Amino acid sequence: MDQIIIQGGYPLRGEVHISGAKNSALPILAAALLAEGKSILKNIPRVKDVDTMLKIISSLGAEITQRGDNIELNPTVKKSFASYEFVSTMRASICLLGPLLAKKGEVKISLPGGCAIGPRPVDLHLKGLQRLGAEIKIEDGYIVARGELSGNNIDLRGPFGSSVLATANIMMAACLAKGKTTIFHPAREPELVDLANFLNKMGGDIKGAGGRKIEIEGVKNLEGKKHSIIPDRIEAATYIIAGAISRGEVEIKEANPEHLSFLLKKLKQAGVQIVLRPRGLIVRAKERFRPLHLATAPYPGFPTDVQPLISVLLSLAEGKSVVKEGVYPNRFVYIGELQRMGANIIPREAEIIIQGVNLLKGAKVMASDIRAGAALILAGLAAEGETTVSRVYHIDRGYEDLIKKLSGLGAKIKRKKERSS
Ligand code: EPZ
What we know:
Elements lengths: L1 E6 L5 E5 L4 H10 L7 E4 L5 H12 L3 E5 L2 E5 L6 E2 L1 H6 L7 H8 L1 E5 L12 H9 L3 E5 L2 E5 L6 E3 L8 H12 L4 E5 L5 H12 L3 E3 L5 E5 L8 E3 L4 H13 L3 E5 L7 H9 L3 E5 L2 E5 L8 E3 L11 H8 L5 E5 L10 H6 L3 E5 L2 E5 L8 E3 L3 H13 L3 E5 L2 H4 L5 H7 L3 E6 L4
Parallel strand pairs: 2-15, 3-14, 6-7, 10-11, 18-19, 22-23
Antiparallel strand pairs: 1-23, 1-24, 3-5, 4-5, 7-9, 8-9, 11-13, 12-13, 15-17, 16-17, 19-21, 20-21
The chain binds ligand EPZ.
The site of ligand EPZ has 27 residues, from helix 1, helix 5, helix 6 and helix 12.
């Protein structure tokens, strides 16, 4: 397992290009299986989770040709089975459930299980597909779904808001169902709007994606099409906070500030300067950050995926901040690692109290999931001395060329093979 080593204290300067959105690419790759013919998907990020999804899709019989960040996908699916080995390494593969059921009439896919950010239930996925007429059984840790799909009204409200990938699954399945489906309380993330745009290009009939109600008229079939994935707003958030926490000045290129409005509003409240540019923005921070009170929520609320990242910035603010986690209440595993760097953070029920300190000190720390790992990298950029982050395979799942991009901004960062003990 590799490690990432950072010498802290160097302000980042220059420009960084944002890759395509991982959380858009994954459901859109699944959606391409619904088509009668080949799709060409552009701006696909070269990250581990996409590699895993491509391996699963190939194992189903589809033909995949990769050319840089473009992928040609011929949906010659011969079987609809996704094993525990695959699904347990990437829970997002659950978004194959809807397309395979709609296209093949049956599917067997492993239940995802849990991960560091919390249990990953799929009850909303299953409820939605049952409302479309699917017969669903759980056998030996697998979801077995089969049946002809007919449109229906579906309420996707869950205990923590809606579900992003359940909304994706139902939207994809409803495209080929007989009749009309209305999804009440869908998730509204930009990645779902990107998915709906791709499905409509393919011949789907979806209205209202990104809003409070999505209406889908089923069609007979869908055609393979060309599509370019939207920029990754969570990657953009990571580099914005990297520019701020290192007290530098960074231009973020090929990002969409509209997808980041809640974060930008909070960063400005903390005293970070944000200048919008065509297709991006400039971030700079000179003075010490002001503390914040914030709560994560489904889009367009403050993104849960940015919670670990903003908490690192607030650990250096002047005063007390409160960060409530409204989507994954236990998403605080990384706190222990930050405390080893000198952060003063007190965990409470589904929230943390952060007492800002003047300085973080480099230390050996361990990543526990994609965004916790990114947060520890940010802490290393700001800390005094050397920080070594291990289990960086978590970070590889969601960040393309992280070392190259940060080095390009002047960070003193390198990757080394961890000596196997
Ligand atoms: C997506 O996961 C993202 N992943 C996650 O990003 C992100 O954190 C999450 O949405 C929330 O924004 C991808 O898009 C690939 P959910 P998803 O279903 O769809 C509960 C990253 O770092 N829930 O919206 O799996 C669930 O427990 C990843 O890129 C149910 O109760 O998340 C959670 O508390 C991490 N029943 C909340 O809803 C269900 O059937 C939101 O989960 C499904 C979910």
